[in-house]
Design brief:
The chain contains twelve helices and 15 strands. It is α/β, with parallel strands linked by helices and 347 residues long.
């Protein structure tokens, strides 16, 4: 079997390469290290590309920009993969405000290029797109909340298990990043519903893992742990540091992609995150990593939240588990911390 993954040197993309290469698939990766352009040296993913090429001899890297429509069309025409996993993106809502054309061209137009190239050259291929919970904008902040000692939590029984796919993505502040991801999310749905393509959009919570090149503007848990280990100062932006994210290990994300490949649907959307059990606030994360490293967290509070940022976000996994009962979370929050801590220490 042949697979093409965009953003192959990033967190989810590299996990896709590792997982499917281990299964004996022929894996082709598309990446041009735009993360370094977006975030500077800390965001550079060449180390991950080199690691993959060294470890998996059958893996083939393609230096390609998904904004280059002609190159994308040629790539799909030549490779004709059985599966396409699209993870390449500009992932920061802070950065999108200063580089709106790069953001939209990467997230929305790049996704259109991938979808149309797949439809033209391999219409029967399974297409998996990494969307984001930011498609819901700041509407989750309208849910009634209660303030606990170390976190915010939902104070409405309807959201005890988190936010479902039925939650509105309309009439809220998304950030420009959220808007470009809404466009790509809807495009994936439309190619499924209009053209009958086997595709889905995965609305990720906080995606994380040991191969994340986390930076201040993107990659909350990875960046926080790296700051602790290096003794760097960490800034908390608003919400008293009690903002909550549900964290899912990249391995569990890719395990779902495999399940979807085996039983694909047309134009589906799924919330995919760690759920309530893997949720953590920034203050709680400080305690977790300090207990592991033995180092106190150096941090300061900035009394201004990021535009469109969520106060509390937990993914309701009911739909994804109902459609794919063979899938579940296998990596606990503790093991996620331990793996990132170990990998960051080694690097």
């Amino acid at each position: 079997m042949k697979l093409l993954v965009t953003g192959s040197s990033g967190l989810i993309g590299s996990e896709v390469v590792s997982y499917f290469s281990a299964l004996g698939w022929q894996v082709h990766g598309v990446d041009n290290n735009m993360r370094a352009d977006f975030f500077g040296p800390q965001g550079d993913t060449r180390w991950n590309q080199a690691r993959l090429q060294e470890k998996f001899k059958s893996f083939q890297h393609h230096e390609l920009d998904i904004r280059d429509r002609k190159a994308v069309l040629s790539c799909l025409q030549e490779l004709k993969p059985d599966m396409v996993v699209h993870t390449a993106a500009q992932p920061s809502h802070d950065l999108a405000a200063s580089r709106p054309f790069d953001d939209f061209d990467t997230n929305a137009v790049g996704t259109l290029n991938m979808l149309e190239a797949t439809r033209l050259h391999v219409p029967e291929a399974v297409f998996v797109h990494m969307s984001t919970n930011k498609v819901y904008g700041d509407r989750p902040n309208t849910i009634r909340l209660k303030e606990l000692e170390t976190r915010w939590d939902y104070d409405d029984p309807a959201y005890q298990n988190g936010i479902t796919e039925e939650f509105s993505i309309d009439q809220s502040k998304h950030s420009l990043f959220g808007a470009s991801k809404v466009a790509s999310d809807i495009l994936v749905q439309e190619y499924g519903r209009y053209f009958g393509m086997k595709c889905c959009a995965l609305r990720g919570g906080c995606l994380t893992g040991p191969n994340h090149s986390g930076v201040e503007l993107h990659g909350f848990l990875s960046y926080l742990i790296k700051c602790n280990l290096a003794g760097r100062h960490y800034k908390v932006f608003g919400y008293k540091g009690k903002q909550v994210r549900d964290n899912i290990h990249s391995y569990d994300v890719v395990r779902f992609m495999h399940e979807f490949y085996k039983a694909p649907r047309c134009g589906e959307v799924y919330n995919i995150g760690g759920g309530r059990e893997n949720s953590v606030s920034i203050l709680e994360a400080f305690d977790h990593i300090s207990a592991l490293s033995g180092k106190p967290m150096s941090w300061e509070y900035v009394d201004k939240n990021r535009e469109g940022d969520h106060i509390c976000y937990i993914s309701d996994l009911s739909k994804i588990k109902a459609h794919y009962p063979g899938w579940s979370i296998t990596k606990s929050l503790r093991s996620v911390f331990e793996e990132i801590h170990s990998a960051a220490g080694e690097r």
